[in-house]
Amino acid sequence: MNIIIPLFAAMVMVGIALWFTQAHRLLVFAQGQVADAWNELKGELMSRREMVPYMVAAVQVNSQQIVEIIGNACDLAANVVGIRECAQSEARLTSAIERLFVLMDSLPASEGSESLVRLRKRLQEQQERITMLIEAYNRRAETFNTLLSRGPARGFAYVMMFKSAVLFA
Question: Which of 25, 47, 139, 166 could make an S-S bridge to 83, C-beta 3.0–4.6 Å?
Answer without folding.
Answer: 166
